[in-house]
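Q: I have 302 residues here and want to know how they pack in 3D. Can you give me a structure?
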Amino acid sequence: PRQQSNVTSYGVLTVTIITLEAFPGMWINAFIVCVLCIAWVKKKILNSNEKILLLLGCSRFWYLCIAWIYKFLSFIYPNYLYVQTILQLAVFFQAFFNHCNLWFSASLCGFYCIKIATFRNSFFIYLKVKVDRMVPWFLFLSGILALAVGIVAYDIADKPHCNSNSTEQGNFGTANIKMDKHFFPSFFLAGFEYAASFMAVIFSAVFLLFSLWRHKRTMQTNSMKDLSMDAHIRAMKSIFSFLVVYSINFVCLVLNMVYVTKKLNHMTFLILVFQYMFPGLHSLILVFSNPKLEKALLKILP
């Protein structure tokens, strides 16, 4: 009874904290989507940066919404998840929107790097010229990769290894997956996508920093002022703040794969807290790094 009481207390605390993180995250991402949709209706067109932000906001909103509903049912009404395909669909959509979030975020960093950085390499110049045409294909490929992980996650949740106790309160509503050879390819695919998107963010930050350093040295040599320096600095602030948050999220994603079979403990609690914090916190950073979104937010807050 005492152990059950502790589990219940952890469950209530977890649902409360997740709710306090998920709802502000859903609000800020819904705000981004609404502002961009209004601009889309007025201008009849969106630039590449706005297209990525629109899809990123949509994916984060639905990820937080579905993940919160799943966790809430897992703790409060766990029997609802025993209904056929409910658990599988919840796992599928969580995995799909989570990986969409990762890939769209990496695409945004790569776009900033290509658009703002200045290199004389012919391939980089080609990318800078063609990047607006390539963005839809990057977004389409990101969706395909996320869909592949979602399908694999659905297949895992449909296996008998994910037993009926997967929704017990003591397991944080996570499918109790038996780590055997059948699931190593699935975890390898998810880990590969985590690492690939994370490396894309790191390379974007390094290239942009190197471009800023070269640009600053050239300005000092020529004793000239260049307005593009401000663009470099703004982009660097955005990407490096994102890099810090993304690094924490990446560590949590890896730890989540390690602790997926573990029972209730402090580590799984901290992982959940950071995972639900990431979509809202980074979207807030994006709002204040975008003049249009920042102006709209400051206008409606009063």
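Q: Anything worth noting?
A: Residues 83-160+179-300 form one domain. The helical segments are 2-43, 48-76, 86-116, 122-157, 184-222, 228-258, 266-289, 291-300.
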